[in-house]
Amino acid sequence: MSxxxxxxxxxxxxLDGKEEVDCEGKNVAECIEYVEERIPGFKQRIVDEKGExxxxxxxxxxxxxxxxxxxxxxxVSDNDQIGIIPLVL
Amino acid sequence: MVIWDHPESHYIFVYHPKVLWGVNYxxxxxxxxxxxxxxKYWGKWxxxxxxxxxxxxxxxxxxxxxxxxxxxxxxxxEPSKNLRIDECxxxxxxxxxxxxxxxxxxxxxxxxxxxxISEKETMEMWMPGGxxxxxxxxxxxxxxEQAEAVREDARRTLGYVFNxxxxxxRPWAQ
Lengths: 89, 174
Prior knowledge:
Chain A is α+β, with helices and mostly antiparallel strands. Chain A has helices at residues 28-38, 42-46, and strands at residues 3-6, 20-23, 57-61, 64-65, 81-86.
């Protein structure tokens, strides 16, 4: 199973110098944990101390903002993309 | 060529010349959208990239705007100072019911990160109390009086869209 986490070039330091990494998990939260185990510090970029999505990032699954689906519990499956951008608009 | 680069504007635009004749580009299958339809269907793919790359991408996308496969595009002239990124932001507008076709075009031209933001969400973020408006007020160190004037303007402009769902949507100058 492979799900991609993708960030813009200027945030590639979040992913240890890469713009995309593969991960595994049944939902966004599990995928974030998967990446955190390999790139410590990643999770705190996305999730605040209460375990909620940070206000200054937008996370998408296949293009859709997870704030409008099930948040961090949004399910993912093989070949899905988790995109992350800062709040830019 | 339908790229409009006016140095006084924060954005560089790609839109069909008929927009200059007063034709509203916010349409679906040739029909103008109401405020309610805009809130339900209108939005944009967000593309982040360095200015040089976005300039090249805009030139490649130009023909799709001319063919009216893409409604319009705008991108920032330079990275915003209050963001944590060094990239410019391109917004590729279309109706949600056509966004998959537009995404296929973007993907074909090298866009990888898939990020759709609805116009409703953007407007909510620019309403009083919204994340973007309040951040903008803080960034500009407005006095409370200035901040209230900004909020009132947002309430009036965007509130009209939310409160008049059957009226034809009219974009404002940027």
